[in-house]
Amino acid sequence: MSASQSAVRSRAEAVKASRTFDWLICFTLFFVVLGGYHIHYMLTGGDWDFWTDWKDRRLWVTVAPIVAITFPAAVQAMLWWRYRLPFGAVLCILGLLLGEWINRYLNFWGWTYFPVNFVFPSNLMPGAIVLDVILMLSNSMVLTAVLGGLSFGLLFYPGNWPIIAPLHVPVEYNGMMMTLADLQGYHYVRTGTPEYIRMVEKGTLRTFGKDVAPVSAFFSGFMSILIYFIWHFFGQWFNKTDFVKSA
Amino acid sequence: MKLLKDKVAKLSFVALLATVTASMFYTPTAAAHGEKSQAAFMRMRTIHWFDLNWSKEEVPVNDTMTISGKFFVFSGWPETVDKPEISFLNIGIPGPVFIRAGSWIGGQLVPRSVSLELGETYDFKVLLKARRPGDWHVHTMLNVKGGGPIIGPGKWVTVTGSMKDFKNPITTLTGETIDLETYNLDNTYFWHAFWYALGLAWMGYWMKKPMFVPRSIAVESGKADSLISSTDRKVAMGFAAGTIAIVAMSMSTTNEKFPVTTPLQAGLLRGIKSIEMPVTSVAVKVEDATYRVPGRAMQMTLTITNNGDSAVRLGEFNTAGVRFLDSNVAQDETGYPDDLLAEEGLTVSDNSPLAPGQSRTVQVTASDAAWEVYRLADLIYDPDSRFAGLLFFYDEAGKRQLITIDAPLIPTFI
């Protein structure tokens, strides 16, 4: 077979080879994203995602979507502009959640015995689905950043509320009131995470009374717009074929 | 010969792989907490723990034990460590093998951070409920913001039974009694599985079509728009609308199910009550202090003045949780950890009763392997080569007085 000849001899063979290639790329991409995104998210959102007594209505709501929209934006840039595949954000979140669940179950529970109901990860899927759909329907990075980024921030808290609300039921404990999540943090001893490290309920949003979460979510959505732009460009830049050509 | 060499090389490679793999799967239990690695001056000149008591040495799962005692927040707190203005009474155990059922300083529950004053002595108590069987080293511990964890003495405690029997019942303010160990677990699994399945469905919809090669060719040839059909758009809109509707509905039903929720509680507890320590009648001046490296002994020259009305004798020197006793004056009756107790480790050149109004200069030697074992000898490598500790004097009636000392330490190597 010379270099000018095709490696396949029929259309059926070509389709088969193409699908095999699809699965190989998908499998590899999934685990590469899982690894990179997981490390990134643990380094930037770490404790807010680890513990229920960090999942508050101010900082967790603000920080988690901002640091989470990074990889979805970059992977979207690659999959959409090169292949018109609108599942970059969902692929990232599927990878991240799988990695996180493996980590929480095997490490946090299996090795160090923290109950899973104290260390489960945040749910980022609703925002990811909407982000992918907006990119697909709009075919616009700007609209995806503005509408998708905002939605990513806004959907985060309500998307998690059904999971964390039961842990915000109050309890009286030795003469003090706390939530069940606070009590988990107090009961299940973390030698290296003293109470003062906890970054919750800090800030100056006091004029909004008890309705702080929507304000935090809007701010998070606004910041997610900016972060989306930056990481989308990262994705486009890394997605160039210049590197291959020069090699 | 070459064949033999190749075989040896192959076998060596296999052996190397086997060794690396075996080492990856070898995960022995981490029993200690690095207490010996903490800088000696941190342990000697920050928090002085004393009168410690571990109520039990063996506890069945679900049963409780307490650690109680006192700690003195040293007046000569080192400049290189932030002051304990934001601190947290913790417990040094390998993960939640116990749960912390309660902790008190000065009688006040301290689930949050506290502000402590230099020069004050506080009593404390930590109530632990056994959760996981095993032999665990249970330490007192105070975390200081800007200073890190300041670990105190530790004692081995055995937890017996089975972790699957552990229960953690809590009654909420809404009147429901739950087991915090498993509460909300099914709900968490359900929602995560549900959203994960929805994400997989979205991915599956696109993955069932040809993906990379044909789509790349289409995009490169300017036919990108043909890759998204009207059905694709309808499906996508369905996913987005469904997602938003599910989020809204699940939030609404959750609010109906849990009408009473409160934000996480946080804040600093100030005004923690300290112990009114009795006025001391003994004055001590450290004339000099040396640490003799080969002999693992610290020698101090002290001038002791008794201003009280009863003769006194020096019974104990306590530093970094290590207790050096003169057994003729004081004995431990609390079951203090053996490795931290030098029952005859304190020698005083003249420890006869010091009569009221008298003053005497004595040579005091605190010697024990603990200096080396607990790496207190490393003090000579610290940035601020000073030592500190507590001296306990006893009068004729057995009444105890606590005096703190703080002075430079000169090492001797010969």
Descriptive account of the structure:
The complex is a heterodimer of chains A (247) and B (414). Chain A has 247 residues and is mainly alpha-helical. Chain A has a single domain, classed as particulate methane monooxygenase, chain B (Up-down Bundle). Chain A is built from eleven helices and two strands, in the order ααααααααββααα. Chain A has a two-stranded antiparallel sheet with strand order 1-2. In chain A, a hairpin with a 2-residue loop joins strand 1 and strand 2 (176-179). In chain A, helix 1 crosses helix 4 (88-111) and helix 2 packs parallel to helix 10 (213-238). The model of chain A has no long low-confidence stretch (mean pLDDT 92). The model of chain B has no long low-confidence stretch (mean pLDDT 91). Chain B folds into three domains: 40-168, Jelly Rolls (Sandwich), CATH 2.60.120; 179-257, Helix hairpin bin (Helix Hairpins), CATH 1.10.287.710; 282-412, Immunoglobulin-like (Sandwich). In chain B, strands 1-3-7-5-6 form a five-stranded antiparallel beta sheet. Chain B has a five-stranded mixed beta sheet with strand order 17-18-13-12-21, with no helix packed on it. Chain B has a five-stranded mixed beta sheet with strand order 16-15-14-19-20. Chain B has 414 residues and is of the alpha+beta class. In chain B, a hairpin with a 2-residue loop joins strand 14 (312-319) and strand 15 (322-325). In chain B, 22% of the residues lie in helices and 35% in strands. Chain B has six helices and 21 strands. At the A-B interface, helix 1, helix 3, helix 4, helix 6 and helix 8 of A face strand 4, strand 5, helix 3, helix 4 and helix 5 of B. Chain A: GO terms for molecular function: monooxygenase activity. Chain A: The chain crosses the membrane at residues 21-39, 59-80, 87-106, 126-157, 212-234. Chain A: InterPro entries: NH3/CH4_mOase_suA_sf (IPR037001), NH3_CH4_mOase_A (IPR003393). Chain A: Keywords: Membrane, Monooxygenase, Oxidoreductase, Transmembrane, Transmembrane helix. Chain A: It comes from Methylovulum psychrotolerans. Chain B: Residues 1-32 form the signal peptide.
